[in-house]
Amino acid sequence: MSDFKERQNKRIRQSKILFLIGILLVVLVPIVLTQFSFLFDFTNTGQIGDTIGGITSPITNLIGAILVYYAFLVQLDANKLIFQQIQEEKAEQKTSKNRDYIFEIFKFLKEEFYSFTITGDKRIGSGNESQYVLVEYKGAEAMEKMFHKLMRNHDQDDWHRDNIKLLEFLNIISLFKNFLAKLDEVEIPLIDKKFFLENVEYIYTSKMKVSIEKMIEPCPKCGEFHGGNPERIIEINNEIYILIEKIKKNYA
To answer: What percent of the chain has pLDDT over 90?
Structure first.
């Protein structure tokens, strides 16, 4: 914007100077040429009006053409400025749309994480008055309880029931990876990327890391992997950390 104003002011100054020069030439040239004899003698001519018109017409036409050219340049700069403003507005709209898109995915990811639930026994009271009641655990606490149950239960019916929750947990891990992949690709300001990344990294490393580590360990009782396919889990986990470091480099 400042460059545009500077160019416009410069051309306006040039136009004013040229206009003043044109006025001086139109006034002075006929007087000089009709009163004094030079290479061409204009002292003996026809009607004074024809003489002045013939002398000044080329000058005024030339000055007019130059001023029209300057007006064209000013209009051209104005059109460029309008085009630039339109492009900037489109870019801002695209950025806003991308930001809303990432926010919706981030919101869905958090909802899926915190809506992960599992029921388990909880002892309340003490001594002879203590009793066990069913409690619904959510989020990271639910994941912790799920793996305690997986490690304790070796009954096929229990395993089949708990395996459904395990698949849900694996889907949540995949959601983290997919979100980070989208965050890496999308065009939004780096400060927004940093905000989303820090939140996702906090949830993943502080609330899911322990559960993931348990998934890739064999059961101490039977030697089986109750957390599913450890190689696939390790692969997804590594991809997540690679994406985290890659995004960090963008705003480091």
So the answer is: 21
Contacts of 183 (CB under 8 A, 6+ apart): 102, 193, 196, 197, 200, 243, 247
Q: Are 103 and 179 in contact (CB under 8 A)?
A: no
E-strand ranges in the chain read 117-124, 131-138
CA distance 14 to 8: 10
pLDDT for the residue 153:
60
- How far, in Å, CA of 210 to CA of 143, rounded? 9
Measured between its terminal Cα atoms, the distance across the chain in Å is 30
CA distance 42 to 24: 19
Q: Find the angle CA(22)-CA(25)-CA(29) to the nearest 5 degrees.
A: 160
Mean pLDDT of the chain: 77
Q: Which of 168, 150, 167, 170 is nearest to 158 (CA)?
A: 150
Coil, strand or helix at 131: strand
Instruction: Write the pLDDT tens digit of every residue in 146-174.
Output: 777 766 665 544 544 556 777 888 888 99
Q: What is the pairing mode between strands 117-124 and 131-138?
A: antiparallel
What's the pLDDT tens digit per position in 133-153? 788 888 888 888 877 776 666
Dmax (CA) for the chain in angstroms is 137
Q: What is the pTM of this model?
A: 0.64
For residues 114 and 45, is the Cβ–Cβ distance under 8 A? no
Q: Could you tell me which of 231, 120, 224 has the C-alpha nearest to residue 170?
A: 231
C-alpha to C-alpha distance for 147 and 227, rounded to whole angstroms: 8
CB 149 within 8 A of CB 120: yes
